[in-house]
């Protein structure tokens, strides 16, 4: 079969493309913006990429068009697909129909940490000899790809609550019908499609409704919003996990930065983890993944040592380089909670005297709509200096955020100005973190190059 994937450069749709290619399909695709790391992965797989949504990019002999959720009515490619009467499906539907049947699906859901938790889980199952398949919303350093079919029974999928497609407004994760589901956390996000937190809770409950009674729900026991989701009805055994409290699965922090912790199951310590990741939030991600390994019947304790070799995902506090004594990181954090926990982890690692500088691009739909504007300044309290990218199209004034920062704040209109300001202000010993859920015009590497050339 020949497929054309609209929105192919997105992390989810790029993963669908990789899976389709591995299954032997011919794959081509188009997107408005094609950039690494997904473009690199797709090109390596021999997939033809076209820039823009010109209907002519869709080959006449394509058997099916797979449509990403970023496309809507009015898009020229979408309109042509409909006018031509072509066969089309969403990415989540295609995955559910072509990859998941016959597999034990493990779905990782939550406002934060989905990508990291999915990657940890796939890595631990690999260490347990399970050879899992997976679809991750990023390129896993340890696997070199964001998706693979795998030869084992388990398939691990990052289960997004965002809507499925212009013709299917349900959350993607209702398509997956998992045997094991991780509910990592739940906060308000995606203000472009959800009116309020209650609307997101309903979608999470739709996911809960799809997990069979022979399966397992692994739930963050510290999260009150998830407790309310379960109160709507639950027909599946629940295992809770957390750090501060009495849960089925507990982590005991042995280092403040989260780099060493003990894993406790039902009061019995399974072992210690020493790894390179930072922060309490990543300990929670690991704990959820360890519990999921156990739920599959694998030996979770035996898999723990593999976390010492775990390298996470590109753009999750990825250290891109050092120049003139300045360490530069690229991070995907784009929700106030994720921003705060990431900076807390870094602060615990580098100590109170090191200077942390943040370059922030408010790019997500919720950020651009101003849904998180009031929480941004408090979330950045761990930074000594924030350079805030206030593009002209941003629909709200960043001045209030910059003015409310604990540390110094500077707003700039474009990435050229941002790199210039950082180049002048950065000092040896600084830790500079670029935060955006988009390409950020390759700002981290442009800044690193500017430092090296200075």
From TrEMBL:
Domain Mur ligase C-terminal: 315-438
Catalytic class of the enzyme: ligase
BP terms from Gene Ontology: cell division; cell wall organization; peptidoglycan biosynthetic process; peptidoglycan turnover; regulation of cell shape
Top-level taxon of the source organism: Bacteria
Mur ligase N-terminal catalytic domain span: 3-97
Cofactor(s) the protein needs: Mg(2+)
EC number: 6.3.2.45
Sequence positions that bind ATP: 110-116
A Pfam family matched in the record: Mur_ligase_C
Domain (Mur ligase central) ranges: 108-293
SUPFAM superfamilies (UniProt xref): MurCD N-terminal domain, MurD-like peptide ligases, catalytic domain, MurD-like peptide ligases, peptide-binding domain
Gene3D superfamilies: Mur ligase, C-terminal domain (3.90.190.20), Mur-like, catalytic domain (3.40.1190.10), NAD(P)-binding Rossmann-like Domain (3.40.50.720)
Keywords: ATP-binding, Cell cycle, Cell division, Cell shape, Cell wall biogenesis/degradation, Ligase, Magnesium, Nucleotide-binding, Peptidoglycan synthesis
NCBIfam families: mpl
Name of the featured protein: UDP-N-acetylmuramate--L-alanyl-gamma-D-glutamyl-meso-2,6-diaminoheptandioate ligase
Source species of the chain: Lysobacter spongiicola DSM 21749
């Amino acid at each position: 079969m020949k497929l054309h994937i609209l929105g192919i450069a997105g992390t989810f749709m790029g993963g669908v493309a990789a899976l389709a290619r591995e299954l032997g399909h011919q794959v081509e695709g188009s997107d408005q913006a094609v950039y690494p790391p997904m473009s690199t992965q797709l090109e390596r797989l021999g997939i033809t990429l076209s820039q823009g949504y010109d209907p002519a990019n869709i080959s006449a002999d394509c058997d099916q068009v797979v449509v990403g959720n970023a496309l809507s009515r009015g898009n020229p490619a979408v309109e042509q697909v409909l006018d031509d009467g072509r066969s089309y499906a969403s990415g989540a539907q295609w995955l559910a129909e072509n990859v998941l049947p016959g597999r034990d699906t493990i779905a990782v859901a939550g406002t934060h940490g989905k990508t990291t938790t999915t990657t940890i889980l796939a890595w631990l199952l690999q260490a347990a000899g399970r050879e899992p398949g997976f679809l991750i919303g990023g390129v896993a350093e340890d696997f070199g790809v964001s998706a693979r079919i795998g030869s084992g029974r388990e398939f691990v999928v990052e289960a997004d609550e965002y809507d499925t497609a212009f013709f299917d407004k349900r959350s993607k994760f209702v398509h997956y019908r998992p045997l094991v589901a991780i509910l990592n956390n739940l906060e308000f996000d995606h203000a472009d499609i959800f009116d309020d937190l209650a609307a997101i809770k309903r979608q999470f409950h739709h996911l809960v409704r799809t997990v069979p009674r022979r399966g397992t729900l692994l739930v963050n026991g510290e999260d009150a919003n998830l407790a309310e989701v379960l109160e709507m009805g639950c027909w599946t055994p629940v295992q809770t996990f957390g750090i501060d409290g009495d849960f089925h699965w507990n982590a005991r922090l042995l280092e403040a930065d989260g780099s060493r912790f003990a894993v406790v199951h039902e009061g019995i310590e399974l072992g210690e983890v020493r790894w390179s990741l930072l922060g309490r939030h990543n300990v929670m991600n690991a704990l959820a993944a360890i519990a999921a390994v156990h739920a599959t019947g694998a030996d979770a304790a035996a898999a723990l040592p593999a976390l010492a070799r775990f390298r996470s995902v590109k753009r999750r506090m990825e250290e891109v380089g050092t120049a003139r004594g300045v360490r530069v990181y690229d991070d995907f954090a784009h929700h106030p909670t994720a921003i705060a926990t990431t900076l807390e982890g870094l602060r615990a690692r580098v100590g109170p005297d090191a200077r942390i500088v943040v370059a922030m691009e408010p790019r997500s739909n919720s950020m651009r709509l101003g849904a998180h504007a009031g929480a941004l300044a408090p979330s950045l309290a761990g930074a000594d200096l924030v350079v805030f990218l206030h593009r002209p199209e941003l629909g709200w004034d960043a001045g209030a955020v910059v003015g409310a920062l604990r540390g110094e704040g500077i707003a700039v209109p474009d990435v050229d100005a941002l790199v210039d300001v950082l180049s002048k202000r950065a000092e040896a010993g600084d830790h500079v973190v670029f935060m955006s859920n988009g390409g950020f015009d390759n700002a981290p590497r442009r800044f690193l190059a500017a430092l090296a050339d200075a």
